Batch of 2 targets.
Target 1
Amino acid sequence: MGGRVTRVFRTFNVESRARREISKEKPTPAPRHRTARLDATADQPEVKEEILRKDDRLLTLLKDVYVESRDPPVRVKDGGGERLPCKQEEKRLTKLGHLGALDVKKVSKGKISIVEALTLLNNHKFHPQIWTAEKIAAEYSLELKDVNSLLEFFIPFTVQEFPKETKKAIKS
């Protein structure tokens, strides 16, 4: 509905509005800069002759110029004392999980992979007498305080199944 109303106003008296715009006096263009009139000077034969003429004096001076370039001597950098010492991290092989190719193969000492973390938490949960914090720290090359924090604050999920309530079906 709104489109019909706007179309009526848009097409109202179109021809007379177009004639009024066409009959308006055109504005005069701005004057051009004199450098824009190069085509007028190019028509003159003296200018063309000056452009095409060779200057012998400048040509002889150009022939006398001789340029010789030399590269600066190449200096080889001595890498003796400039390198910073690189800390070599000790790596250990991980206890591989069931993911095969997706498992992490090597881990830095003092760190564990996710599979190992879940395994050690699960082992400690089911057998806390065997898998003590000291044994876990020795097994996975961890610090004892980190293992104690890990065992205290991270608990693996437990799945509990509740027995279904048995009710007699309502017979209709």
Note: The beta strands are 91-93, 106-108.
Target 2
Amino acid sequence: DSNDDIEDVSLFDADDDVSRRSKKSKIRHPVASFFHLFFRVSAIVVYLLCELLTSSFIACMVTIILLLSCDFWAVKNVTGRLMVGLRWWNQVDDDGRSHWVFEARKVSAQGSKTSSEAESRIFWLGLITCPMIWVIFAFSALFSFKVKWLAVVVMGVVLQGANLYGYIRCKVGSRKNLTSMATNYLGKQFLRQVRFPVLETLR
């Protein structure tokens, strides 16, 4: 009987492990995950193919700016909250002063997060990769003297960079935390640079 009981417990634990893994890998918000990538990827595709699709610069510019604006709104107000439990916004207090609020969802009492690892990977991959692509487009437009496209590219860098900055602030914490992290990193780099010449002179 004791052996049967032990086997039952081990099978129950195995089922728990399988269910936990499936919850981590499962995409709980497929629509939000789709639109998190749809608008920003579509803006990049339209920018790359617009000269092949049409000769109208105005139509391309308006389409790209609309896609970037939809992406900014969707990522800031919907996908960040659903996929990773983060949100940021501007708030005006009673004195008329505006200040930025950066929040992260608290872990539940059971210690489990409501967002899955798959959604988190999709969110941060799209959030980090696309602004880097727009920065590359900005340097390309600048060095190839495509002045008319520079305004569109700068709009992409600003809108997607703003979301990236806001969610990094939500993830890391307040500005003091960012400052302390930067100070600690620079301090470590400085100590490394000072340490190696001292060791070489001692040798």
Note: The first strand starts at residue 86 and ends at 92.
